[in-house]
Amino acid sequence: MTDEPTIGFLGCGKMATALAGGLVSRGFAPADRVFGTARSPGSREAFSASTGGAHTFDASDGGNAELATTVDVLVLAVKPYQIRETLEASRGKRKSGSLIVSVAAGVTIETLEAAAGAEARVVRVMPNTPSLVGAGAAGFTRGTHATDADAALVRAMLECVGVAEEVSEPLLNAVTAVSGSGPAYGFLFLEALADAGVRAGLPREQSQRLAAATLRGAAAMVEETGDHPAVLKDRVCSSGGTTIAAVAALEEHGLRRAVHAAVAAAAARSKEMANE
Ligand SMILES: NC(=O)c1ccc[n+]([C@@H]2O[C@H](COP(=O)([O-])OP(=O)(O)OC[C@H]3O[C@@H](n4cnc5c(N)ncnc54)[C@H](OP(=O)(O)O)[C@@H]3O)[C@@H](O)[C@H]2O)c1
Predict the structure, then answer these.
(1) What residue numbers bound the domain in which 200 lies?
(2) Helix 63-70 and helix 80-89: axis angle, to 10°?
(3) CATH at 203
(4) What integer pLDDT is reported at residue 276 of this predicted model?
(5) Which ranges of the chain have pLDDT less than 50?
(6) What's the pLDDT score for residue 9?
(7) Centroid of ligand 1 to alpha carbon of 72 (angstroms)
(8) Pairwise CA distance, residues 148 & 140, whole Å
(9) Residue 44 falls within a domain, yes or no?
(10) Given ligand 1 and candidates 79, 85, 132, 172, which is best to mutate, with the most ligand atoms within 8 Å of its CB?
(11) Please, what is the Cα angle at 255 between 254 and 258, to 5 degrees?
(12) Any domain includes 176
């Protein structure tokens, strides 16, 4: 592989467009080294427009094979049920030495390696929806033949749209439960906080803006100070004040228990789905 790999997205949908757009806008890859395939012209045009003119191939007219022969990194960004079929179709056509990266939810390394063929270098990624706005949190795991350089490359690609953590494959169920499904927990909490602000008298829009900025600010403080969340929480709880009164109410209503139950339920469901 050259220093500047060519990167191709099989599927030009939301996740592919977000990732490819991030690669180009962050200067990781110039647009002329990024490619995509999809069947509809609309998908291809939107992908091209979001990537500063990346070239696309028509998947209905041999484009997937053309992409496979062209690129050093083949990112599988079609729906999970299409992964096996599209990967099998690329066998014998992929550029020599190419790396396969799957972002498909729930498709295991075993499935990917079986469909890609012996010795294929495969990395499986679990991205999340905030990648679409450059604030993603992804987990990834390498297959049997993927190298340290492959893992470093995938990490650098993912960091163009957020943060990335390498884990062993069984832990991808936990990643799914924390960051994959996590945006929904955040949305639910944010909605509740905004509603509660409305109840306390704030206009809806103001309450929602304050709630969203507050959650973003709390997350930024954890990331930027490196302090434990409990330390930061203690610092904003003055004796006999409003915040400790609110924290006590959250504890009484079982916030921690609810979060533990939610993550355990999502992880169990993710494990179950991998075996379906
Ligand atoms: N969106 C997320 O937040 C998110 C989060 C985690 C994981 N993922 C994973 O990312 C993958 C893509 O999801 P998405 O949300 O980006 O879906 P999407 O927006 O529906 O994109 C799917 C793309 O695949 C194209 N396509 C369909 N059949 C094809 C074929 N035979 N050959 C080539 N391209 C084909 C579609 O375009 P045409 O119909 O025009 O061909 C479309 O561009 C999924 O496996 C999903 O599990 C997504």
Answers:
(1) 182-274
(2) 70
(3) 1.10.3730.10
(4) 75
(5) 1-2
(6) 98
(7) 20
(8) 13
(9) yes
(10) 79
(11) 85
(12) no
